[in-house]
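Re: weekly structure request thread

Next one in the queue (158 aa):
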Amino acid sequence: MARSLLSATAKDLEPLLREVAGAVGVPVLGVVSDGQTSIRRAVERALPGVPHQLCQFHFLREAAHPVFEADRHAKVRLKAEVRGVRPIERALEGQDDTAAEVARGYCAAVRSAITDDGRPPLAASGLRLKARLEAVADSLDRVREKGAARRRSRICAN
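Done, posted below.
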C-alpha cells in the first residue's frame, strides 16, 4: 500500500499505519524502519505493543558511527601529510626523462589514493588510504634500495 502524504509527521503516518495493519489480514508482529522519529511515534500510537526496530543497514550504520568518525579523522590527518604532491608535479613540468615520468606516476598514485572515498559503514576509507599510501612508500623504498645497490656495484666495479 502506498499513498502520497503532505508530510511525514507521526500524526500523518498514524492513520496510514492503521489502514495498512487492517488491510493485510494478518497480525502485525513487528515493524522495521530507518528509525525516523515520526515513524517510531506513529508505530507506538497506531500499533501499540508492536515492536519496532531499525533495519539492519541503519542499525549497522549507527553502531559503526564511532568507528567511522575515528576512521574519518585518521583520513584527514593522512591527507594533510601528503598535501605536497602539487609542488612536486609543478617542478616536473617540462621534464620528459624517465625519472620525471616515474615521479609523476608516484604523484598520480598518491592523488588517486587521497581522492577515493568509501561508503560507510561498510568501507573504512581511512584504513584504505593508509594501506595505499604504505604501498606507495614501500615501492619508493624498493626503488631507493635498488638505486643504492646500483651505486654500490658501480663503486665496487671501479
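The CA atoms of residues 13 and 89 lie 57 Å apart. The chain has a mean pLDDT of 87.
Next request, please.
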